[in-house]
Structures
1.
Amino acid sequence: MSGESSVVAVVVTYNRKDLLRECLDALRAQTRPPDRVLVVDNASTDGTRTLVTEEFPEASLLALPENIGGAGGFHEGLKAAHAGGATWSWLMDDDTIATPWALQRLLEAPGALEGMARPELLSSRTVWRDGSLHPMNEPSFKREPEHYIDSVERGLLPIRMATFVSLLVHRSAVEEFGLPLKHYFIWSDDVEYTARILRDRQVGFFVPDSVVEHKTKTAHTAVTETGGRFYFHVRNSVYMLRGSAWDIREKLSLVWALVFTTLIYMRHNRFAREQVGIVLRGLRDGVKPVPS
Amino acid sequence: VTPSSSPSVCAVVRSHSSPALDAALEAQTSSVTDRSSGAGSWHSAVATAPSADWLWLLEKHAEPAPDALERMLALTITIGVDGSLPAPALLSSKVVRPDGGLHRDSAPWPPLLDRVRVIAAVRQRVVSLRLARWGSLLVHRDAVEQFGPPRADYSDGGGDLEWTARILRELPGYLVPGSVVVQRQPESGLTSREVRDRMRMVRGNSWVAQEPIWFAFLLAVDLARAAREQPAAMLGMLAGAALRRPHGTLP
């Protein structure tokens, strides 16, 4: 790895060999390739490990003994990348297909921001298969007008939070704020982590010219097709209400969003006993003490 | 709105001009073809302005940098070329205090929810606007014809929001960060007339979808901030807004 700007791509995967292959191919095709690729395998059972060792020998494999969810995967992956001395860790899921300039454009942002801010989080423009903004990864912007205009003048937008679908994290953020919270298991781990880092600091930017495709089957938002996993949405929202990532005003919006999505979810499932149970268990576990 | 290569520009000041503004207009690198002043309100200033491709609405104490107009006009020609952004009907300069910081009374409001437009605009290094403030606005003739002058029954501190919200609901507008105007008038913040005007606007028809909820929310935030800084003034402001008899119809 080369001194100042070493980049480790951290790809978290679980039983999606074909997508992972596409994802890793896209990393190979970068105009500015990452210095190292770290595949974090959440104990896949579909031969993912063989795929990585045979087809992508340049990648390192972090083989987790059990599936600890996206949150656990990013926790362990970022920890390993940080310990290995990475200046930047480039976080993504296995269904994130980067366009060739994605990393180079992200890495150009600090230069564009010279004299203004030293960025610690840089987020790509995430599109769906048809090129439209992916609704699961829509950026959320900071609105402080002066900072906003200064950022726009440099071709960037200030963000309040981001998702782990092509996010560059500087090591100074890890040093100050630690790692994503493992006990979230899936969902909102990225929202919580980035919102916590950006709460009182203007160090996160959206880079519109860095484009990645988030290759989900449908361009869905999380609510209607989540089944039992809706539990994590409810529980982790309650976790966030107890946490320090959001200020009081933002927590009010969070409550509103939770109520709204829960109503949609329950109505979609015709208020069936099972789904009501999922929501109630989420609420109950959300107020329990957090596992350390 | 179709851009023209050598557009005529009429500089419009609300009441009368100041020597500093006169000098700044003389020094513009793009020519100001005409000048006009109103009789003390933005309504009459715009209504009586002579016809031109663009009206450049300037505050009396504004001092535009020599290239302030040129930067905006250049954008009207280049911005639509690659098809990623529609040509603007309204442009705003960046209005700063003499110390260089953004002037609070002229701080822009980016679009509330339209992320696609916001992102397309940043790729052209401009801020896509949903509302704009007085200070230095370049408004196309077509927009003035379509929407009329600013309403006479709004105060200065609310009339800009009302007028630009209506225009920008239909037509695109951007803030050009490189076009800089120094505003020497000190920041006044929120006034009771502006609070009243913004309350009226919430009920008005300048909006699409959930926007009025956002607008009301932003007013609440501004009021909360004012309350923290000066609780007494904030109470006076609310009382003033409540007691004032609304005149005219809703926008």
2.
Amino acid sequence: VTAKPVPAIIGIGQTDFSRASGRSEWQLAIEAIAAAAADAKVAPSDIDGIVRYQYDNVHEGLVARSLDANVLFHAQVGFGGQATAAILRHAANAIHLRQARIVLCYRSLNVRSGVRYGRAERSISTDDGGNFVASGPRIPSGDMVGPHGLLAPGQVMALWARRYLFEYGIREDDLCEALCEVAVRQRAYANNNPFAMMRDRPLTREDYFAGRMISTPLRLFDYCLESDGAVAFIVADANEFSDSAPVAITATSQFLPPYGDAVALLGTAQNAEPHRAVSKRLFADAGLRPADLDVAMLYDATSFMVPIGMETFGISEPGQAVHDIKQGLGYVTKPFINTSGGHLSEAYIHGANHVIEAVRQLRGTSANQVPGARSALVACSSNSAAILEV
Amino acid sequence: VKIVPQVTAENEGFWSAAKDGRFVLQQCRECHRVWLPSQPNCPGCLSTQWDWTPASGFGRLISFTTVVHPVHLAVADEVPYVLGLVELREGPLYVSRIPDVSEESLQLGQEMVVRFTPLPDGNKLPVFTPA
């Protein structure tokens, strides 16, 4: 009788992160995958599972060709960055069920030099009469919101922010001070991180407040980067690959409430009870409390996703994150948040770079190492989350 | 406003009512639940028997933002413009351009009322302004 499988990340890989990769997304993916396979000490052709972002242009068929691999299990997760930790969930389930032995996860994008997610060109078309047309149920930019001018996720997050002020009676100045703290701290992490696009670009409080307004109350440095690059990781049974520095995937969660697809605006706020209930179950499954976490990698398309994410996952109580950030929670006291610089200052690889930073922390190899880190949360709002442990 | 909606089987009733100056919600014939945006069935009982029913046209402003940086050519000459998130009196949330205001004059929680602004395809866009 063999031991029950312990799903774990056994290898990580990446390309450089840049404004113009000069390579195809397919090539970037293969470079990251080859690095992850080498790190895991597995032959690429032995990969027999693939789980990837539905948004990725590099589909699993192309990867099977490139790796000369025979794939027994493959799946996609939708809604953009919501796939961040969900791909770990599906990969871990495949390992639990022994439906595959070596599962590859990846994200590859040229969203700076190619189609930019921060703009609306990919969603607004023109008709025969020369009108601009908003179509489909998507928010932002769909048929009900596009005509009003709600066109980009960054505008939705500005609306999240003021809704939060309204619900908790928080002053806008206090929120902006906390968001400044997030942006400045993450930039300082990036300044230490050799992979970070903003490695050589310091950011002060004065720089933050001098940043131009994008969509009030959010300023330039509240927004994530747009990046070219790829990240890959490999999930397998830690028992079988004990020589590959495995990082166990202890618990995972997903959540898709009504109007929770894509960048949600018409449903419940992300720190509301239905979302917190999902995160409570995640921690119960892991046998941990939020206060036990050493590291939290919170999806940060804007800086506002950090305080709201802290509240989703019980790192802060609802309405308290702004205060807690100013007290140093996340930066002076654990869990340490977005230690790579995150999407704001390392790169925007759609959450996948958050996963590999969590692995680096638990292996003790982060550029901003938290001494003795044993547990990490990786999450994209409540939509997908995973707890990793060594 | 320069961006027009693509009219579909499910949203046609909304836009044709708006053209006549009426702001409507979908309402279930079976359980009388109301909802927006349009979808083919009642989210309460899954009935596909529903009507477009007149709404009060009032709601509460629960968020707003001033879009300063345009992200598409279509709105490049409209910035800065104000977007609001309105909690309709009937319950659903509605994203609205708030025309002819600066955000300094808005208060979170304030009462809003619908009016209609022309679209370039001859339709009208229901927008909310301070009541």
